[in-house]
Specification:
With about 300 residues, the chain is an all-alpha fold. The chain is about 75% helix and about 0% strand. The radius of gyration is 22 Å and the shape is elongated. Pfam families: TetR_N.
């Protein structure tokens, strides 16, 4: 998507973001945006058909930057679940520090955009961001935490937004690494108590319909490599032993094969057979086998 943002478009986009943050989206006119860019209003309309289209591209630009950062974290295979979540939180914090006008703009409008396409995109973006964090939380605290993961995401994202808001509104200075560490300390404390007491989750698909969409998207997006990562995270929580180490070796071979352009069926099937010796992986292994077939990563 970024290739569509030529220099002129980016110039208009950043100028508009600053004006929306300072004056509000509704109050800002295309004429004011043109004057800020030192160009004619006609030139602005050549790049964006309307103020709504311009605002939508601001959100798309920001999400592209966020998604790029998250994908870089996912590619760092040596990271454990906790380190991965720390990096994801830092991606958000540093992006908001780099583009404070974007966060200020959202705070000013408070989600009150009337354009349906923009509201739909914001809803989709929120779902994607939830998925970035949900899998990491389950990876840290285990499968028994899964029913509480949506509320864990709400807690984490609320803390992120609050601390960023304090920096922008109250003009306080917070160090991203310290914010990240403190947020995880709070999330840890809540998760520990939740797992100890196992209360009934407050949120469910009945009282929060979008939760069903988030969970469905998460299930559909279970790429074989993601499932391999989940298997490894589960095994790493077990005690040292020969069977555990053999299973981890099989996962390493399987992962290396799955990134090949044409994975070899005999290798993939052999590693899957090896992993069946680990009963702790039974549910994930069933998903992994189905995902390999669905994604066409194994030649028939």
């Amino acid at each position: 998507m970024e290739e569509k943002w030529n220099e002129k478009k980016r110039h208009i986009l950043f100028a508009a973001m600053k004006l929306f943050a300072a004056n509000g989206y509704v109050q800002t006119t295309m004429q004011e945006i043109a004057e800020a860019c030192k160009m004619s209003k006609g030139s602005v309309y050549q790049q964006f058909s309307s103020k709504e289209a311009l605002l939508l591209d601001i959100f798309k630009f920001f999400f592209k930057r966020l998604n790029d950062g998250m994908q870089l974290v996912e590619r760092e295979r040596q990271l454990g679940p906790r380190e991965r979540l720390e990096r994801k939180i830092l991606v958000c914090l540093r992006l908001w520090i780099e583009y404070p006008e974007f966060f200020t703009m959202q705070m000013r409008e408070n989600g009150g955009f009337v354009n349906q396409e923009i509201r739909d995109y914001l809803k989709w973006m929120d779902t994607e961001i939830s998925m970035f964090f949900m899998d990491s939380l389950v990876g840290i605290y285990g499968d028994s935490y899964a029913p509480y993961a949506p509320e864990g995401v709400l807690l984490l994202s609320s803390l992120l937004s609050t601390y960023m808001g304090l920096q922008l509104v109250e003009k306080i200075t917070l160090v991203p690494d310290e914010v990240c560490s403190h947020i995880l300390h709070i999330v840890d404390a809540v998760a520990e108590r939740v797992l100890r007491e196992m209360p009934r989750p407050l949120l469910n698909e009945s009282n929060w319909p979008r939760l069903k969409e988030v969970c469905a998207r998460n299930a559909k997006s279970a790429h074989p490599l993601l499932l391999v990562k989940r298997c490894r995270e589960r095994l790493e929580r077990l005690s040292e032993g020969e069977e555990r180490n053999e299973a981890l070796e099989s996962l390493t071979v399987l992962e290396q094969e799955l990134v090949e352009i044409r994975p070899r069926k005999v290798i993939v099937l052999g590693m899957l057979a090896n992993l069946k010796r680990s009963p702790e992986l039974a549910d994930l292994l069933a998903e992994l086998e189905a995902a390999c077939q669905q994604a066409g990563l194994v030649r028939v």
